Amino acid sequence: MALASTTPLASYDQSDGEFLDLSNELAEIIRRDNTSFLSRVGISGEAFETTHSWMEDSLNANTATCAEALDASEVTLDVATGHGVRFRVGTLFTLDVPGFTEVIQVTAVNTDALTIVRGYGSTTGEAGTVGTDDKIKIIAHANQEGQDPPADASKVRTKVYNYTQIFQYGINVSHTMRSVLQAGVGDEFTFQVARRLMEAMRELDSSLVAGIKSASAGSDSVYRSMGGLVEFASQALGNLTTTAEALSLSVVNDMAKQIWDDGGYPNFILVGGKQKRAISLFDQSARRSVYDATVAGYVVDRIITDLGFVLDVIVDPHMNDDVAVVGDLNKVRVMPLRNSAMRAEDLAKTGAAFKAQIYGEYTAEFRNATEAFAHHNNLT
User: Fold this and answer.
1) pLDDT confidence tier of residue 259, bands split at 50, 70 and 90
2) DSSP labels, 11-79
3) pLDDT at 109 over 90
4) Cα(170)–Cα(346) distance, rounded to whole angstroms?
5) What is the distance between the alpha carbons of residues 90 and 18, in angstroms, rounded to a whole number?
6) Which residues of 353-370 are buried (b: 16+ CB within 10 A; e: fewer)?
7) Neighbours of 273 (CB within 10 A)
8) Per-residue model confidence (pLDDT) at position 116
9) Which residue from 256, 377, 371, 366 is spatially nearest to 320, judged by alpha carbons?
10) DSSP class of 363
11) Residue 137's Cα: distance from chain center in Å?
């Protein structure tokens, strides 16, 4: 049976004259964590050129890498290309292999080939086998009484650079649009300026995390861009792990130790939402709730590593879900080009419209990136 119809004048017969049901407050879906990493790093200093450079220095290495296997009686050892200069006649070393206690002395160095004496002092030649790529730990460089000083070992400082990147947004609001009253908006022009500024800062944070350096400092066909943390931390010579595995406390401990082995002091871990959820499950099996607890759930904002480093957990929406970076915030700086900090500028008025731009030019430093950070991708 069809529904019965009625004849009175109904609300849907005359809708044009109704008041619009508009709250004077906007319903916004705007992330408040769009600049998580940038907010932790802050902005300090100034850059003076579009190619921003800084000098890095380090001590001579006291570790090396085996380039061949070593049994219990061999008296020669090849080390990785370029590592021979880390040794000299008299050098005492051992190997970073579980259970290996032997100390070995170098008697001659020929490029990357070492002549060695096994079982130095109270130690004896190890019966186990040492493999290629095992780590050598240099204990000391023993010297003969009255000898001439060894060759100069001064290190040449290296120059590292990043480019500045322009962040720019335009605003163009007609006179009529600015004059018409809008629900939830007092001044359309000012409102749009504020929104574009938020977008520019979001883009700066995204570039700080995931930016890639342009091929050059800019040209007619190259738009200059800055490199971000992920690019600097994932260099081939750095602490890079690509194993497909779940993020766990053990994995974080290993990443922190990589930095510590290189002389660094990690104090943060940067992840996206997926890995932040994984971190919140650390030590889950050891948690207990009191019988009258009325709140379920657990969040981890800091991690204490087994070496004693306290890592602040920073979750940023611009990090890939399969990536985590451990590092030292003291090695990161964000700065504007001189006289180019982010700002809103009114532009010349033409016609019946109000115009402005959001403009800023920034770069970032990641000092000692191959030692002060550890990058892990392929996390499940």
Assistant:
1) very high
2) GGGS-TTSPP---SS------S-TTHHHHHH---S-B-SSEEEEEE--PPPSEEEBSS-B-SS--EEEB
3) yes
4) 10
5) 95
6) bbbbbbbbbbbbbbbbbb
7) 12
8) 96
9) 377
10) E
11) 28
What are the beta bridge partners of residue 359? 168, 343
Q: Are 256 and 309 within 8 A, CB to CB?
A: yes
Residue closest to 312 by CA, chosen among 333, 328, 332: 328
- CB within 8 A of 190, min separation 6: which ones? none
State CA 183 to chain mean position distance. 42
Q: Which structural domains are found in the chain, ordered by start? A: 36-56+160-282+298-376 (no CATH), 63-141 (2.40.33)
The answer for residues whose C-beta is within 8 angstroms of residue 221's C-beta and 6 or more apart is none
Rg value, the chain, Cα: 31
- Backbone φ, ψ for residue 229 (5° rounding): -60, -45
Give the Cα separation of 213 and 228 in Å (integer).
8
CB 358 within 8 A of CB 194: no
Distance between CA atoms of residues 339 and 361, nearest Å: 9
pLDDT of residue 283: 81
325-342: pLDDT as tens digits:
999 999 999 999 999 999
CA angle in degrees (0–180, nearest 5) for 56-62-65? 105
The DSSP code for 286 is: G
Closest CA to 205 of 81, 339, 321, 315: 315
**Strand-pair category, 104-110 with 91-95:** antiparallel
Output the six-digit token pair for 159. 């120059």
Return the bridge partners of 79, or none: 66
